[in-house]
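As agreed, record minuted below.
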Amino acid sequence: MFFRDENHAEHWAEAVEAAGAFRDDDTVNSYYGASLFIITGIPGLYSRAKKHIHNNWVDFEAILNMGLSTGESILVALAGSLYNGGFFDRYTPSDIVSHCDAGMVELAAKAFWIRKQTININTIFD
């Protein structure tokens, strides 16, 4: 399983549904999949950020203005860039390594991988 735990997988599936990120064949739009993987994988963030996940869009600007820690801000900026670009321009990969613990660095690395995958929502809990 590429999720941190069952809770992460459940939150991701809920966020993907809220964003309307399914295609007709039940695969997940990879732009949403990767960005929401980060948002739902940062401990404690999803419960605060889910009000900014809307059908067909995610308000990353609002999430970034929620009073996040430095590491959270870097990862949310990365999530926004995996979604539609333009949010990570003031950071470098070194910032992820410097400000995030090993689990969050792994989360970022997996998000890059997810961005290039076709994931069927019906298989994530197998």
